[in-house]
Amino acid sequence: MAVTSLQSDLRQSRPFRSPAQEAAISLLRTASVVRRVISRVIEPHGLTLAQYNALRIIAGAGATGIPTLAIRERMIEAGTPITRLLDKLEILALIRRDRSTADRRVITCYLAPEGARLLARLDPIVDRADEETVALLGERRLRELIASLDEVRAANADRGAPRDLNAAGEEQRRGP
Asked: Which CATH number fits domain 45-174: 3.10.290.10, 1.10.10.10, 1.10.3720.10, 2.120.10.30?
């Protein structure tokens, strides 16, 4: 049996136990490679990938802002510790946070002018990196990949949910 590309990358001489194992490991390895490519574009601008993700979420909320927990729920990496991440964005004057007067537990985040300026510079660079990362697939194969990933994610969404949903809200109640 021929050695696969993934086996070579991992310097693994024995075959995988199953095609399912190879697919899962290949998906994780590919996600890691793509994450590094995008991170290398973002980091020279003083942000981590998670900070950029949070900044994009806040920008997408518009003038109404977005509660901290809603940001956490929308993050690409589930379980990202959000309070420290938002602290850093606020220190950099990229966002501002306001505590609700109606419910002091709710903290709403807004994009600051400096955050909007940074995104205006970064977004075209990140868009280009996104395009270059998957350009070799072409439109048809890209749509097939998206559909396949959607199916895998949907089939496993409950299995990857937080173990203790109460703990997920704990950070919001503590506040900044």
From this structure: 1.10.10.10
